[in-house]
Amino acid sequence: MPDMATHLLLSVAVFAGAFVSSLAGFAFSAVAGAILLRIFQPMEAVPLMMACSIGVQAANLWALRRNIQWEGSLLLIVGGALGIPIAIYLLQNADTHFLRIGFGIIVALYAGYMLFRPTLMRDGVAASRRLTALIGFGGGLVGGLTAMPGAVPTIWCDIRGMPKSDQRGLVQPFIAIMQVLALALLLGRQSLSPKLVVDLAISLPALFAGSVLGIVAFRNVNEIGFRRIILVLLLLSGASLALA
Asked: What is the reported pTM?
């Protein structure tokens, strides 16, 4: 494929992923990967998506800095950090194909069901520290197996009926740190290639534009619209994982 066409598709993929991720808080790789995995080899596309996603998460954290729930986020992060090594062990020593399919089916069924029922009432009760850390552990474990670290905490927030700002303020730091850990583990096994640096540089304008527009869209969407977006993305992500 000519370089110009490759660069154009790269920019389109990164813009779309950044926009969706900044609007919903997750799903950068699910959106951008639909294009990038068709024009790059996985060993090129995956670290590029991780690096771009971390850039998007950094922009989101800055934009949402007043809504960050640091105590809850730190508990999620501690739990997630404990779950990632177990996921890596399973990836290296067990066949996790059916685990990924099973999780994808569960996520898709949950999202499909919740799309057709009324919005849940807010419980108004603070979750225990132990439960929050356990949710983080599940997110880290599942994220290590499926590259979807935000799925478990997002579903948990939806079950609790959390408003969009509280949900993003709780889950966003968790997703960002999980992605940093995943990229660090990946780069520990392979060196940073010059091509990755060049592709990342080419992606920056699209990354910035998509992030800004996504954040603006997030601030203007209402609670019901935001919940529907989250559930649709969970449905699509779960279905793609189950059918992979």
From this structure: 0.83
Please tell me what DSSP assigns to residue 148: -
Nearest to 179 by CA among 140, 132, 210: 140
More confident residue, 80 or 93: 80
Among 30, 36, 40, 35, smallest CA distance to 175 is for 30
pLDDT the model gives residue 161: 85
Residue in the structure block whose two tokens are 């700002």? 165
Residue 221 main-chain phi, psi, to 5 deg: -85, 145
Q: What's the CA gap between 26 and 19, in Å, rounded?
A: 10
Confidence band of 122 (pLDDT split at 50, 70, 90): low
Task: Tell me the DSSP string of 47-115.
Answer: HHHHHHHHHHHHHHHHHTGGG--HHHHHHHHHHHHHHHHHHHHHHHHS--HHHHHHHHHHHHHHHHHHH
CB atoms within 10 A of CB 9: 16
Residue 224 has a CB neighbour count (10 Å cut-off) of: 10
Q: Pick the closest to residue 25 from 136, 139, 238, 172 (CA basis).
A: 172
Question: In the chain, where are the structural domains located?
Answer: 3-243
Secondary structure letter of residue 119 according to DSSP: P
**For the chain, how many helices (H) and strands (E)?**
10, 0
Question: Rounded to whole angstroms, how far apart are CA atoms 190 and 168?
Answer: 32
